[in-house]
Amino acid sequence: MKRSFGEKLFTAINTIIMVLICVISVYPYLNQLAISLNDGMDAISGGITIFPREFTFENYRTVFSNPNFLDAAKISVLRVILATLLGLLVTYAAAYGLTRRGLPYRKQLTLFLMLPSYIPVGTIPTYINMKNLGLINNFWVYILPGLFAFYNMVIIRSFLQELPPEMEESAKIDGANDFTIMFRIIFPMSLPVVACVALWISVGAWNDWTTTLTYITDRELHTLQYLMMRLVKEAELANSMSMQQTMSKGQQVKAQVTGDTVKAATLIVTTLPILMVYPFLQKYFIKGINLGAVKG
Amino acid sequence: MEKTMEQTLVTKKKRGFVDNLKKYSGAYLMILPAIVSAIIFSYLPMYGIIMAFKNFDVKLGIWGSPWAAHHGMEHFMAIFKNPEMFKAVKNTIWFGLVILFGGYPFPIILALMFNEIRSKWFKKVSQTIAYFPHFLSWIAVIGLVYTFLAKEGPFNQLMGALFENWEPVNPLMKSELFLEIMFVSHLWKSVGYSSVVFLAAITGIDPGLYEAASIDGCGKWKQVWHITLPSIKPTMVIVLIMSLGGLVNVNFEQVYGLQNAFTQLENEVIGTIVYRQGIMGGKYSPTTAFGLFQGVVSLILVVTANWISKKITEQSIW
Fold first, then answer.
1. Which domains, from first to last, does chain A contain?
2. ipTM associated with this complex
3. Residue A57 backbone dihedrals phi, psi, to 5 degrees
4. Is B145 in Cβ contact with A28 (below 8 Å)?
């Protein structure tokens, strides 16, 4: 079929707008990358686009030689690993248990697990509860509250329901118990959904900073995202202060400028893990929300 | 004779129950951690909701603390009397309305545009790029916003190039631009990813419909209007219902992250007040009431929206 002039024009305009959207989507990040690779004093005059003007690794050296940063990185990594492994275990086991054929009280148990998502408990009662549990300034506040997630359970469950029942039954005849069946047979078959949920949990855990803001004051338990929040907000504070007060210029300006490039380097390092797993994220997240959209 | 039959039936039933427990003990054991975790982290804190109706004193505990005045409703009445809180309520609703309804069409339009891309390669690349910001944390996005809008940053550069005599400003210092910045940064972060679910719906449309329409002489616009949009209506409705609860749940991370000395006072929302006065300030009872008020309104909104949608379009999330 021949395409009319109107259609060609349509495609052309569509392409131009799409290119524009892509540029807008990546420009701020590339700009930040360029700033992080630029000399701090030079960056003061602004005007850096997506290429550094005076190239240097100095900002990254500053970031990686900061003990606070290294401590926070350790906490962040440890947290992501534990939250993902344990969260996956609890959520997957629940999903598998609930899909067992003929399970008595399945409905009641599911309702019991679902109900909290509709009851607005609020920040403060949750906070008081954590306090009573001794989880304030405690590393486990990063792990324990998120062990079970109803939505993730639903996603896994709907995947398990699609699996053929024969595998399970033949294993049962061979005398395998529930746990053996789950780990040996069903789990390896459900790797796609497991990958999806694992990425889900780990990205959430990596990107979270409000848990630290709410429950942690102990510096040793700060995470990378929290550190970045402090940097971003404190740099802003410094900026507004320098606007309000006319101080002895030189020093003020210098402190602020090195802050900007180091801040940029921190942001890049903190988001790098996300960038590295992004190809998988794109693949599995999208599968996941389509699953979720169907099952709702 | 009859009696013994009844008895055997009863014992059979009883044994059935015990047998069931035994037979399914593995399954129950697997569900147990989830149940325990739900009890400790979801059901236990529900008890704390009582604080909203009391004058909570840490030393007396939740139960021992005295009830609040006006039959325990004191803290709820304060929401409308206290100008700071009332302003936060107004802001929360206004911000929520703008972001929900103002932002709603964009992912749909983007999905339509993705669908019209002819080149497979370009489609893939542009999707990859457009979804990316979703995976950054809010604080990373706000870091980018700060740099982008700085006096020497790209925003002022661009404006300087476009307009003569452009006086560099930092919009982040302008309280009246707070919502605009929130809206644009929200769009920047989420529009690509939000389009995925619409794109999936569009891809599922029977291509025969388009062929028939184009034989009948329907142009692109007419096809979009008469085929694509009606076909994805169920998805559009579901997404709208699901986001209605968010109408009074403005993103705390975003607001807190963007607030600074110049903009904070005018742009407080319920979540930030609860954090500052409750967690930081220790005023547990008033902020529990404030949070509960928000939660209940949000729940009512979702339930109502779902009910209306069920009546009108037969689409519902339950």
1. 64-295 (1.10.3720.10)
2. 0.88
3. -100, 5
4. yes
